[in-house]
Design a protein that fits this description.
Length: 95
């Protein structure tokens, strides 16, 4: 990928969720909600604090994360649909 996020921005690729319910009912794409989990593809270096020191990021490429429903900006880079969001939009890292 030829994109490097700046400051505290993170590039996330949504992870596909199961299209069936536990009971076996198939959910069509038009009725399914967009997943709120994704994998970090790239992360910026971090933000500079008031003291001028770089505050490192809490996430790194490869982390599986949970983010808010309306978080980020959808972009298409190299044919992939990705989200660019601030690190603060990420709620946590999934283990």
């Amino acid at each position: 990928m030829k994109f490097k996020p700046l400051h505290d921005r993170v590039v996330v690729k949504r992870l596909e969720e199961e299209s069936k319910t536990k009971g076996g009912i198939i959910i069509p794409d038009t009725a399914a909600e967009k997943p709120q989990t994704g994998q970090v593809v790239a992360a910026g270096p971090g933000m500079r604090g008031e003291d001028g020191k770089l505050q490192p990021m809490g996430v790194k490429p490869g982390d599986k994360v949970l983010f808010g429903k309306w978080s980020g900006t959808e972009v298409k880079i190299d044919g992939d649909e990705l989200l660019i969001m601030k690190e603060s939009d990420i709620m946590g890292i999934l283990g």
